[in-house]
Write a sequence for this structure.
């Protein structure tokens, strides 16, 4: 569910970006080939090119964005699709924080074919929100048979190099999550013991459950510990449980980003 739909379902008073009619598409989509890997999978990428000054959103877009959604159902010989998200930027938009990419997004995808002996055809749609002075929805079609013999693609290699560090790579020593019930849902206080990621650090907390929405995170540093607080709400109402092993914390810093999977009780 997109954030505007969640906001309506919850009846909360968040500001949602204004939509308007814009003449012509501001986004173009191209499937890039990266050839076949030693494991037998296909490496490719979805490249979205935006008109100058426009931006689109990360998988957790913040309070003022719409996450991209893919429909791969019309594809042929596609088993598993694994997406690698390059580290996004943080934007201030109409007093709200949004997280995404400006001008271009190259999203690497690794495809496991159902039948290794047959070609892989990617056919479907990508739904995304794009914003500049106004925000509009876009639906982009794609239809491309992947080239198993393609060589190394510099654009894909650059996007893969921009992925967040793992917890081990970033020298994360410990991550805990303290959960407290609230009137609307559950408050998460995550404490991450790690070196600074540089400059202003912004932590993003994802619950691991697409039916739940997490508010913009309040992030502060206490020595070698980063403290991030967010509230998780069930858009459909009613009680819910959080699995700490499914909680995902991404720290966005000036020098690098860090992707942390799971946290202990704290």
């Amino acid at each position: 569910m997109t954030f505007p739909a969640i906001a309506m379902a919850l009846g909360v008073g968040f500001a949602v970006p204004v939509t308007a009619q814009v003449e012509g598409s501001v986004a173009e989509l191209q499937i890039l080939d990266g050839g076949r890997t030693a494991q037998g999978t296909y490496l490719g990428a979805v490249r979205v090119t935006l008109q100058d000054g426009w931006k689109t959103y990360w998988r957790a877009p913040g309070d003022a964005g719409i996450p991209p959604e893919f429909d791969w159902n019309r594809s042929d010989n596609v088993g598993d699709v694994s997406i690698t998200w390059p580290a996004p930027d943080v934007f201030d938009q109409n007093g709200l924080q949004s997280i995404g990419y400006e001008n271009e997004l190259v999203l690497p995808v690794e495809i496991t074919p159902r039948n290794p002996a047959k070609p892989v055809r990617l056919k479907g749609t990508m739904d995304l929100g794009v914003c500049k002075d106004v925000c509009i929805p876009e639906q982009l079609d794609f239809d491309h048979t992947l080239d198993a013999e393609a060589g190394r693609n510099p654009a894909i290699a650059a996007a893969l190099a921009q992925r967040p560090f793992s917890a081990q790579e970033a020298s994360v020593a410990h991550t805990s999550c303290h959960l407290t019930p609230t009137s609307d849902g559950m408050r998460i206080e995550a404490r991450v013991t790690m070196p600074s990621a540089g400059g202003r650090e912004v932590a993003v907390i994802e619950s691991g459950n697409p039916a739940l929405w997490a508010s913009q995170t309040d992030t502060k540093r206490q020595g070698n510990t980063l403290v991030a607080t967010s509230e998780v709400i069930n858009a459909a109402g009613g009680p819910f449980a959080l699995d700490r092993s499914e909680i995902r914390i991404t720290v966005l810093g000036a020098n690098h980003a860090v992707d942390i999977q799971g946290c202990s009780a704290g």
Remarks:
- The chain is about 5% helix and 50% strand.
- The helical segments are 3-10, 154-161.
